[in-house]
UniProtKB/TrEMBL annotation:
UniProt xrefs under PANTHER family: VOLTAGE-DEPENDENT CALCIUM CHANNEL SUBUNIT ALPHA-2/DELTA-RELATED, VOLTAGE-DEPENDENT CALCIUM CHANNEL SUBUNIT ALPHA-2_DELTA-2
Cellular localisation: Membrane
Claim: Cell division is one of the keywords in the record: no
Highest taxon listed in the record's lineage: Eukaryota
Signal peptide, first to last residue: none
Topology in the lipid bilayer: Single-pass type I membrane protein
SUPFAM superfamilies: vWA-like (SSF53300)
Pfam families: VGCC_alpha2, VWA, VWA_N
GO cellular component terms, semicolon-separated: voltage-gated calcium channel complex
Name recorded for this polypeptide: Calcium voltage-gated channel auxiliary subunit alpha2delta 2
GO MF entries: metal ion binding; voltage-gated calcium channel activity
Family note: Belongs to the calcium channel subunit alpha-2/delta family.
Amino acid sequence: MAVPARTCGASRPGPARTACPWTGCGPQPGPGSRRPASGPPRPLWLLLSPLLLLPLLAAPGASAYSFPQQHTMQHWARRLEQEVDGVMRIFGGVQQLREIYKDNRNLFEVQENEPQKLVEKVAGDIESLLDRKVQALKRLADAAENFQKAHRWQDNIKEEDIVYYDAKADAELDDPESEDVERGSKASTLRLDFIEDPNFKNKVNYSYTAVQIPTDIYKGSTVILNELNWTEALENVFMENRRQDPTLLWQVFGSATGVTRYYPATPWRAPKKIDLYDVRRRPWYIQGASSPKDMVIIVDVSGSVSGLTLKLMKTSVCEMLDTLSDDDYVNVASFNEKAQPVSCFTHLVQANVRNKKVFKEAVQGMVAKGTTGYKAGFEYAFDQLQNSNITRANCNKMIMMFTDGGEDRVQDVFEKYNWPNRTVRVFTFSVGQHNYDVTPLQWMACANKGYYFEIPSIGAIRINTQEYLDVLGRPMVLAGKEAKQVQWTNVYEDALGLGLVVTGTLPVFNLTQDGPGEKKNQLILGVMGIDVALNDIKRLTPNYTLGANGYVFAIDLNGYVLLHPNLKPQTTNFREPVTLDFLDAELEDENKEEIRRSMIDGNKGHKQIRTLVKSLDERYIDEVTRNYTWVPIRSTNYSLGLVLPPYSTFYLQANLSDQILQVKYFEFLLPSSFESEGHVFIAPREYCKDLNASDNNTEFLKNFIELMEKVTPDSKQCNNFLLHNLILDTGITQQLVERVWRDQDLNTYSLLAVFAATDGGITRVFPNKAAEDWTENPEPFNASFYRRSLDNHGYVFKPPHQDALLRPLELENDTVGILVSTAVELSLGRRTLRPAVVGVKLDLEAWAEKFKVLASNRTHQDQPQQCGPNSHCEMDCEVNNEDLLCVLIDDGGFLVLSNQNHQWDQVGRFFSEVDANLMLALYNNSFYSRKESYDYQAACAPQPPGNLGAAPRGVFVPTVADFLNLAWWTSAAAWSLFQQLLYGLIYHSWFQADPAEAEGSPETRESSCVMKQTQYYFGSVNASYNAIIDCGNCSRLFHAQRLTNTNLLFVVAEKPLCSQCEAGRLLQKETHCPADGPEQCELVQRPRYRRGPHICFDYNATEDTSDCGRGASFPPSLGVLVSLQLLLLLGLPPRPQPQVLVHASRRL
């Protein structure tokens, strides 16, 4: 019995439709469901499968047309499968290409990738590369300590006594408002000439070093001038290092005074705004200057904290957080009578970029009220540090307290938690200008091996929130040689333009003594660093022998990737390291968690796994088999891994010793051959050193041909493996043209093009005119169709990419095509490999018409089915396209073909954007599964500022009552207001300024953000399936079936007539995560496995803690304050003095 259609509301002309034939038709399940939830008992016949139900749905008076039976649709599916297979057999040339390879067997050898040997060799090469840098580092650190020890301090040193190249001098001369220009710099600044060096991606001078001094440090101070004096001797050591190892990149000494001396000299990259660069805040310096830290920051938010002082505290906390690295753990709490965390974090969390961002946002919400209760704050902090049930650094422990002052010393708290061992250091910060007695704050710090600092104004924040590192460095200095160990950093962005780098760091100690028999100096002089560009490490890995889907990766002790093909940050902020976890670089699963843990633990291993991979264009998910092999890189914190698909175990290596054959094949690369042999795109690889790269493939091919006319493929300046394979594949693909393509009429089968792409880097498109509309990447290894074809059996359809926000496809001139590709599997003896992919490009319109015919009841090509008024006929996709929707959807859920003409311009769109109701039903019936992941490297457009007013933000504006209140004039508010306005001339909008923007990022540049990605892939249903979209009077019948040997799903459904059954729409496009991805508060409850550095220097019995900060409270003069305020009100501000003197303890 035929299955009739159904009606919805008022009838319309044409075949009638019946209503939903049973009760209980409810709303469609949402995206999160798989099957309708069980409800009240239903009649047995309702529990029958859709296959048995559908014949029961006939109604009296049914029309002449009914919904097609399952066997009919299966018949249509077989016709579609046969048509695709027939075209691919005739035009794809898979079998013919296999024969061509075998016919040319004497022209290549089959090589094997042996994973264990390969990964051990690469690890060894990387170890050797880094070891050369380590030796250079040690020479530099030893020399620096000796130079400083031999240096004699000069109290009367003057700027004119020092000659050096100031890296920022050129930028300051170009800036008419620069202070050095205004007052005339007394220092003898060198003027240098520079030459372009591609290794540094910069202009350099190899005869000199350059010096960078932070903006907020006075260049003429005695401390800085003495520092410049003794570090000048490092110049010769830098040069000698380069003589011994010409591959060395930046060699840098970052001084604890803030001075940076680096080699070779190059002008500083002047930012467009205030230059806030300070070497002591760079990731590599922080990591090298101290051992890992467990830090609790407590902030006084009692009512005595004025509005401006509270803002200083908020900014100070944010600056303090920037001194922490991924090896550190932190929590932040506010306190008055009680203490509470400022964020959702209830315990110490890793000080990574995302956690620090949560803290910084939460700190801005702090509100001052209540009374000061130091006891509550310190008890909370000690409890946090004593919690042993969480992951933490387990090295330096410290409490940082920010307050405006108080009388309580909370000695009982220290006696209970910290004495007599004093394992927790206490640092106290007096914030703002006030007349409180600071003696209790000094005592707290001195009694607990810490330090007392004063932050009276904006200009003191940066320098005083980083000086604590000197105290933490004391045990390292006293440990001597034991602490002189090279550490390698996370990946970060080089400030001078090298791109992504890692840095080897080595601390430099002060070896001087105050006198014979006196105690050793405890000061750390600074950190020595040598950069290694990631590109230099990548060059040590095999590029093209691993195939399109094989790769090498490396991770550090935090699980962050050092090398990975998916490490592609869209935007970088050089203040922060680039931290992409291995489990975020790939799609996470239990096997990868196990591999990651083993690598962090420094073990060797091998494991074959089934896993999900994301396509290169991030639209598809494939389930694949991968072999993971890993080994540690000795003498470093890194571990190296190799990933190989089984089909990449072997690869071809061309052996074109016959020069006549080389010339013959090379001629098929010449544009003059394209008309008869098809257009050739060559992969833009580094074939030779002198080959000029170009993003335009036509120009690149021209450059390649010009170079080949001068050199031979066997030239020493060329990569012979790449060149020979390229030329071999040129000849092999030309033979495919000759044997298969040239004699075929593509129009007969409505084909726009045929093509072949190879591991050797050739993409040949036939005929030549089809190359005009070829948009695939000329590098096969970077082409999504190529990589997916290797991972999937059968024919892979790829519709043109369409974004929902863009206009529909334009179907003019028949140029829109659908790629169909398949891998060529070659068996040579017992060795199997896939060296090429072939395919065709279907004419969209012609194949849409053909699709209708193939999914119809025609018994003859030109004769549609005839159906009389007294006979029952099944609907088909051609005759009944007004009532029946027929589509082909690929494995990612994207529309490939439709029998609806108005949907042709929507081909390539996610099907939910075409028919949300039907796509949801397919998902709920397990035809599709969904995978959600997060892209932590995305870039987003800058958010518009929330404050649209013209006044500077962050300035405290006194009310009339304040002016009339004499107490206000003597309070911290008046003094802090003056200080803020004074420094605000230099640090404009400093409280709110984006650090990246302030340090030179172009205005309106996109910022880093997290994007949520959703991909769909075929679920567990493989068989033919009938179902009903249960929606009351608007229910729809549909049938879905996978097409064998393809990535297509064939779907036939009744067209929707009602809109009241609209269910939730499935989303596939990327969406911005305002909360930076998965909820951080939940993630920290299940932290990923990591290991900190294996050494810790947080205690030394000989440490002298007597230097713990001394300050005095200077009550401001009422007369001076009134005069200054009047000057401000009259618009006559005094001349600002932005430089901050280096801390007195820096005297050497």
